[in-house]
Amino acid sequence: MTSRHLQRHVVYLGRVEGRQKALALAASDLLVIPEWVGLVAVDSLAAAIPILTTSHSSHSPEAEYLIHDENSIFVDHSVSTYAKAIQELLCGDSQLQQLTTGCRSASQSLSIELMADAFHQGVLSWIESRSEQ
After folding, report:
1. This model's pTM is above 0.85
2. Superfamily of domain 18-131
3. From CA 115, how far away is CA 85, in angstroms rounded?
């Protein structure tokens, strides 16, 4: 089946949790999150579903798990650029498949222990930065 025959739909879900999130991830090819990427970065890698986002200052530290052109795409923070990137990813299979493979690969190098340690280090850095003020 070529990408011309593959139909994809964009559905706005808003915040979902638990079973609803698991079902949504299972039915998704791409997560389209234009601004604030937080813990969904971990969901993205665990479910092998790439994220398309913008280069925006509001991302939380978990966005550092995302690597542009490997397991996610970061584009300029502009509506037209973002819309074009959505279209390109959903209409062409090769880049989306490459990003999906990148998510699977990245998830294998992450563990609960590593994420807990990174969180701990982040909290310590934040405390240190606050004490310097």
Report:
1. no
2. Glycogen Phosphorylase B; (3.40.50.2000)
3. 30
CA–CA distance from 42 to each of 18, 38, 60, 128, 132 (Å)? 14, 8, 12, 25, 31
Contacts of residue 115, Cβ cutoff 8 Å, sequence gap at least 6: 42
Annotated domain spans of the chain: 18-131
Q: Which two tokens mark 77?
A: 């923070």
Let me know the angle formed at the C-alpha of 9 by 35 and 104, rounded to the nearest 5 degrees: 65
Cα 18 to Cα 77: distance, rounded to the nearest angstrom: 30
Nearest-angstrom CA–CA distance, 82 and 6: 21
pLDDT in tens, the chain (133 residues): 444 556 778 888 888 899 999 999 999 999 999 999 999 999 999 999 999 999 988 899 889 999 999 999 999 999 999 999 999 999 887 999 999 999 999 988 777 788 788 889 989 999 999 888 7
Measured from the Cβ of residue 49, the count of other Cβ atoms closer than 10 Å reads 23
In DSSP terms, which residues pair with 54 in a beta bridge?
75
